[in-house]
């Protein structure tokens, strides 16, 4: 597929419960109406590596189909903004129930909401609107 975007490898994802727990316990969190972002700076040895992402989308967001759509849109939005983020950090995005509204508006709405949250948190060069 020559026209497809390159997706980050599965190594760039948080998958173990202990990894999520460390981000929740030792990291910082930032919230908006739609999303909560938890971030944790890994050790100096890992700082040369890129960012890693974990997602949490609960049943209050909707059924399985809707939750999977929200997760896909969140991943796309995060990796489109990842170039502006400091390397060597783990991030967990938690979708609040109102994230369902963003899913109805499409991928652009998720990108805008995430970039505003990153700017508010001081993690991105983007300016909060």
CATH architecture: 2-Layer Sandwich
What is the name of the CATH topology? Ribosomal Protein S5, domain 2
Average of the residue pLDDT scores: 86
What's the total helix number? 4
Beta-strand residue percentage: 15-25%
Cα distance spanning the termini:
36 Å
> What's the helical proportion of residues?
25-40%
Number of domains: 1
Shape: globular
- Which CATH class? Alpha Beta
Uncertain residue segments: none
Number of strands: 4
Order of helices and strands: HEEEHEHH
Report the sheet with the most strands, covering strand number, pairing sense and barrel closure. Answer: 4 strands, mixed
Radius of gyration: 14 Å
Broad structural category = alpha+beta
Order the strands across the largest sheet as they lie in space.
1-2-4-3
Tell me what you see in this structure.
This protein is an alpha+beta fold. It has a single domain, classed as Ribosomal Protein S5, domain 2. Helix content is 39%, strand content 19%. It has helices spanning 17-26, 64-81, 99-105, 107-121, and strands at residues 28-31, 35-41, 52-57, 89-95. The chain is globular, with a radius of gyration of 14 Å. The mean pLDDT is 86.
């Amino acid at each position: 597929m020559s026209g497809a975007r390159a997706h980050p490898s599965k190594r760039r994802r948080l998958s173990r419960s202990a990894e999520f727990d460390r981000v929740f316990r030792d990291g910082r969190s930032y919230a908006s109406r739609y999303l909560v972002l938890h971030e944790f700076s890994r050790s100096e040895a890992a700082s040369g590596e890129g960012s890693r992402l974990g997602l949490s989308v609960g049943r209050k967001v909707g059924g399985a189909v809707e939750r999977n759509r929200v997760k896909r849109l969140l991943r796309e939005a995060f990796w489109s903004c990842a170039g502006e983020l400091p390397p060597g950090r783990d991030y967990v995005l938690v979708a609040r129930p109102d994230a369902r509204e963003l899913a109805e508006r499409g991928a652009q709405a998720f990108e805008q909401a995430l970039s505003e949250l990153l700017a508010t948190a001081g993690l991105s060069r983007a300016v909060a609107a």
